[in-house]
Structures are given as C-alpha cells and as structure tokens.
Amino acid sequence: MRLVQAIETNFTELHGLARNSPIATTKPEFNYNQPRAIWPTLDFARIAIEKVNARAVARYVLRTDVARFFPSIYTHSIPGQFTQNLRPKNNRSQSLVGNVLDKIIRESQDGQTIGIPVGPDTSLLIAEIVLCAVDNAVRWDRVGFRWYDDYEVSGITRGECDDALIRLERALFDFELEINASKTSILELPATLEDVWVASLRDFQFRLTPSAQLKDLNGFLSRAFEFARQPSTKRPILRYAIRRLQGLSLHRNNWSHVQHLAAQAAMHEPEVLPHVLGLLNFWEQQGYPVDRSLLGRLLKTICIEYANRFVGSEVAWAIWGFLQFSLQIPVDCVAASKKLNDDIVSILLLDARRKGLIRDRSSLQALRDCIGLEAFEGEHWLLAYEGTKKSWLRPPPSLRSDFVSNHHVKCLLDAGVYFYEDNWPTDATAEHFYGSTRRSAYEIADTIIE
User: Edge-to-edge strands of the sheet including 150-155?
Assistant: First the structure.
C-alpha cells in the first residue's frame, strides 16, 4: 500500500521516466478501462510487426534478454534514475522519490536489496524506469525494439550487432544486471518471425470424423512432444497444445484418448497440469465423463514426486485437482504434502479434509501449532489466519486468544477478510483458464488462438 501511495503521489515524474526509452514497446500506460491499472503500450500481437519493421533494411539481428530480470533488479540502483547518477551511494535523503521507492521496496520483502515482486502493476512501472535508464545509457543508434526485458536490434553487418551487444552488456553491468547468455544470438537475415512450433501447432487442422480425428490428435501431440523434447527448449509448447485441445469439436469416441494424451503431457511438464485440469473440467461441463481412475493416478504421482523435491506449486495444483474432481486424497499424498510446510498446500489440505476427501481427520492436527502470539508476524501467517477465520484449525483457547488479540488480525477478522475461496462452482478451473464454460467452444477457440 505504501508503494502504491508513493507511486501515485509522484506519478507524473515516474510515468515520464518509465516512458523515456527510444526502443521500448512496453512503455506503461495508466487506463481505468483495461484489465490492469498499468498496461504496456503495445500488446504481444504487435511484436511480429515490430520485428518486420526492425529487419526491413538489415542483414543481421541481435536477440538477447536480461538474465532473471525481475529477481535481479538492485533496489539501490532505482534512485539513480532520479539523480542522473547510476549508483548514488552518498545521498540517501528521503526527500528524493527514488530513495523512497528503494526503501519501501526493500521493506516489502524483508529488507532484501535484490529483486522486485513479479506480477504487481507497480513492478512494470519500476522495471521500465530501470530499463529506460539502461536504454539511454546504451545510446542506441541501431533499429530495434525492447519487449519487457527482451531485446532485438538489427544491423547491416555482424560487427554492428556485436558492438550493440557490448554496449548493452556495459550498461546492464552498471545496474548490477547481465544478459542471458543462453538466449543471446546474432542471426543472419532473413530469419523466421516466429518460432516454428507456434505456426505448426496453431495452423494444425483437425478433421471431424472419429477415425480421422484420432489420427490428427496423435499427429498434433506427436509434434508438440517432439518440439518440447528439443534441447534447451523452455517454451510453453505443451501448455499451448493442451489449451488448443479445449477448443476442438471433439468427437466423444476420442475423449478417452485425449485424456491419456493430456496425462502424458502433464507427466512430461508438471507446469502443464493446471491446464490439463482446466481441459478436463471444461469438457466435463459439456457432458464428457472424466476418467477419475486415470486422473487419480496422475495426481498421486505428481503430488508425491514433487513433494519429495519440495516444489510447492506442483503439489498445490495436484491437491487442487483432487478437490475439483472430488477425489479421495491417498494417505501417502497427505503425508508427503505436509512435509513441505507450505501454507497454500496446507490450506488446500484443510479444505479437502472439510469436504471429506481425507479419511484420517487427525492427520492434519499438527498444523494448528502455527497459531500463537507472534503467528501473524511469522512465515505461516496465512495458514494461521485462514485456519482461524474458517475454524479449520482448533488450537488451545489460549493460543487462539493470543492470535486474535493481534491488532491487524482483529481488523481483518472484523472486516470479514479471507484469502481462500472455499465455496467455488463446479467449473472453477475451466472458468479460471477459459472464461465461462457457457461460452461456445467456437468462441473460446478463437480467443485461445489469438
């Protein structure tokens, strides 16, 4: 809240700094009519046009991006954009808006000076302020553009691109940043304007007869799997493929086959699991029965494997799958998940227990130990608060009394605030990924492709 207030108070100056780049396509706009308060000037659909414009009179193109950009931003470099000094270590006056932002950002993440949050609209503005300063330090004299932290710069000779890369590396170094070497290349033109897999999967045609469509499904996913297996591939290929399957005129005879293909995709890339759950949920709402035996095996495998790796996000989605499809959670999944000490996972487990999906109700008793006098200032504040608000955790009365006596907890409870919605509709996952399942498959297919 303090960060938002500081940005609003100094918005004119900050907005100007965040738009002061000769090559940025993600200059922030403030617009009440957009889904987000702060929005990039150009949307992603314009990138192909920007590529064409930049490459029109060129023989080579430099492509690179900043390594782990948001997590690597040095907060002390932010004030430099307001004083024309890259790292003004000697002036920490809180009369300077840059110093105010530096302090608030650090205090919002336990005093860390490295990184800003990924996701909030405020981060787009701050990131653009930093990268605009980088762009101006480079003194670009080549045709090109920047999309967030991705750069594409054209040249007549390879040497011009090499020179541009050296200057960019030098400017980034002054901001404690560096390029991503694995994604840096100088290509001889002409080169493809989009990844081959995008065109191959986007333009794939599915026939309508059952036998022909079955062959097409195998061919489509075979392409997706082959692209996904290529060395150093970090693209969302399988995620894209699964989302395309949602918009098909799917023949019922092929529905079981689709479920097995989707399960294989989730096993290959667990980050695809949420989209598989959305796909299954969507088609179930259209009257296509979900193979709960297959789904249960898939969720159990992913849950246990990633709980043992201490990767909370995949475990959380697996448990959400059990919840969405009302499947009993195996005992070994519960035991493995508890070891994570992850609040999101724990809250999902408590909801599953409340809904009768965990047979041993005593298996989560130890979670109540998170509630106490200092709980709201601790790392498990979310679990303590939700467990108290929803009465899912029942600690000794004295511990509960200590917790709710916290001024902030009392304010939130009195206002009826909660963070986890436990009363959701039967199409919750499909709604999350595709919008209302009441929309026609044809409309949604167009939206997904766009």
Answer: 144-147, 150-155, 60-65, 185-188
* Global confidence as pTM: 0.78
Q: Give how far Cα 127 sits from Cα of 81, 102, 123, Å.
A: 12, 13, 6
- Identity of the amino acid at 121: D
Question: Are 51 and 154 contacting, i.e. CB atoms less than 8 angstroms apart?
Answer: no
Count CB atoms within 10 A of the CB of residue 444.
20
Helix 292-308 × helix 273-285 angle, to 10°: 160
Residue pair 82/91 in contact by the 8 Å Cβ criterion: no
Tell the residue number behind the tokens 């938002």, with chain if given: 4
Which residue type occupies 428?
A
Specify the length of the chain in residues. 450
Residue with tokens 């100056």: 13
Which SS3 state, helix, strand or coil, does residue 141 take? coil
- The residues facing 431 across adjacent strands are none
Determine contact, residues 152/63, Cβ cutoff 8 Å: yes
What 3-state class would DSSP assign to 176? coil
DSSP-derived pairing of the beta strands 185-188 and 60-65? antiparallel
Per residue in 95-130, pLDDT (tens digit) is 678 888 889 988 888 888 888 888 888 999 999 999
CB-CB contact of 236 with 202 (8 Å) = no
CA distances in angstroms from 49 to 193, 195, 199, 228, 312, listed in the order given = 9, 15, 16, 26, 39
Picking from 191, 189, 119, 106, the residue whose alpha carbon sits closest to that of residue 148 is 119
Radius of gyration of the chain measured on its C-alpha atoms? 25
Return d(Cα 330, Cα 328) in angstroms, integer: 6
Report the amino acid identity of residue 245: L
**Other C-beta atoms lying within 10 Å of the C-beta of residue 192:** 10
> How far are the Cα atoms of 189, 335, 346 from residue 349, in angstroms, in the given order?
54, 11, 5
Residue 322 identity? F
| 37-46, 97-106, 441-450: segment of lowest average pLDDT | 441-450
From CA 212, how far away is CA 182, in angstroms rounded? 41
DSSP state of 35: S
Q: Which residues pair with 151 in a beta bridge?
A: 64, 146
pLDDT for residue 90: 56
Peptide bond into 190 cis (omega under 30): yes
- Pairing type for strands 144-147 and 150-155 reads antiparallel
Is residue 304's pLDDT more than 90?
A: yes
